[in-house]
Structures are given as structure tokens and as C-alpha cells.
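Hi R.,

Here's the chain you asked about this morning:
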Amino acid sequence: MDRLKLFETFVRVVDCASFTRAADQMDLPRSSVSTAIRTLEERVGARLLHRTTRRVAPTDEGLAFYGRCRQLLSEAEEAEAMFRHAVVGRVRANVPGRIGRLIVAPALPDFLDAHPGLEVELGATDRSVNLVEEGIDCVLRVGSLPDSSLIGRWIGDVDMINVAAPTYLEGRSAPQTPDDLDQHQVVNFASPATGRLEPWEWVEDGHVRTRPAVGRVAANSAEAAIACCLAGLGLLQIPAFDVALHLEKGELIEVMPEHRAEAMPAHLLVPHRRHAPERVRVFADWLAEVFRDALARGQAQAGFSSRRLSR
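And the predicted structure, written out as C-alpha cells:
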């Protein structure tokens, strides 16, 4: 088995978490896959996989090697296609859950029709993923960027809004300022990474202010937080485009419009490498355009201008 085939076999085993499933997908005997992994481990001088009777998982060395193998396989695909004038290969992307469901997935058919040589593996999660260790080519993140090892491309600012369901406000006075939060319940947002509850935030006299807020419910995804708010469980701070249709239908109502949280920057991130593969550049350009368009539409529906969609 040649070197690239060994790399491909290793990547497939990690993706499948199984020798048997990898062998089935590659139409190879299971013994051939096992032999390939042993050969590769001997060549690199490290154990790449933890093997149990139920599952196969990469070691720390295997995770690092997995990212390099995916990169090499992608570059090999591009080298073979450089004279065919077509973009080929697979793009592994990750976006926040609701963005994936409401924006990216509905637009994917047109993208795939325009690029028949591309495949897209779309992950939709609100947790922070590790691009290198998980072999992800491109990720869309909303919020601050603590990881300096990634290349970030700003694609817009996401306006925030304070909302409540009409059922929650029945028999209550709508809050006018953050001081009124003492008399209200909120749907808290818990960080998927740390579990820490995010404080209530607003901008006052050009400065960001925060305060803890009382709530009996906490959610660690935008999807769950919006569902709790719609159920009348409390006030919620959320990106405006995320609830634009609910506002339009009257299912949610804006409160404290003069005390909104600071807008959050949105970035497209790729692993730090000298040249991103063409397939990743094509997908990233398309994703940026789709997201900008959806952001502008949603923020307009929610009563915001699109003033921060370009710099």
C-alpha cells in the first residue's frame, strides 16, 4: 500500500471510529486495514490509535497526525485536479447550530450544483471546536476569538436584542431598564465550554455594563434558549436575526430597546497554514456571502440597519 493510501486508511479509521466500517467504506478486507495501520505506526514511530473491543479512538499523537494527513490528502486531490479547471474534494465545516439549520443547509443545494466536484461535511454545534485536532477546514464563530493560532476573517457584526414572549408579559409590566430585572426572570445562557452563566449585558454611555440576572432556567444552545423564551420562561438576550421571524409573527416582543447588548463580531476561521486549499477558499467565500445576506435580512426584519456588515 503506498504512502497516500496509508494516510487515507488512517483518516478513514479515525472518521469511522472502527476498522470494520472503514474497511467496508474502502471496499477492503478488514485485515488489510489493520495491517495498514500497523505499518503506518511503525513508519512514524508512534502509536496512533487506542483500540478496544467496542471503539477505536486516536491517541494524542494520532490526533496531531490526523490533521496533517487530512491536509496532505487535500493537497494531493488539488494537485490531481489542477489541470481540470474544477474545484474538487471534501470541505469539513462547522457553524453554530441555528445558523447551520436556518441559513447554511437551505442554501447548500445551489452551492453543490455550482461545484459538482465538491462534497461538504457540515457540523452544526454551539460548542467551540478544535479545527486542527478534529480535522475541520473552516468554522464560523460568533463572539470573541481567544485562539490566536487560527486565521480569522471578519464577516459582519451580529446585533443583539432583548425579547420576551407575550405569555410571559401577561400580568407583568415590561422592563424598561436593567434595574427592572430584579422583578423578572431571565432565560440564562450557559457556556457550552465552561457551563458558566453569561451575565445580562447592555451598552450605556458608550460603555458595556453587565449584571447577574435571576432565572430558573439555563440553556447551553441558542435553539434551547429560544424555545424556553417562547414557552414564557423569561426574558432573553439573543442575536436579532435569530428571532426575526418570531418578532414578525408576534411570538416574541422586544423589550428594553434602549439597553441592548454590544453587537458580536462574526468570523470565518481556518487553521493556520500558508495557503488554504482552493476548495476551502471557494467554500469560505460562499459561506461569507450567504451569512452576510441572511444577517442583513434578519436584522432588517428585526428593525436594525445593516450598517455594520462591511468595514
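Confidence is low (pLDDT under 50) at residues 305-311.

Let me know if you need anything else.
M.
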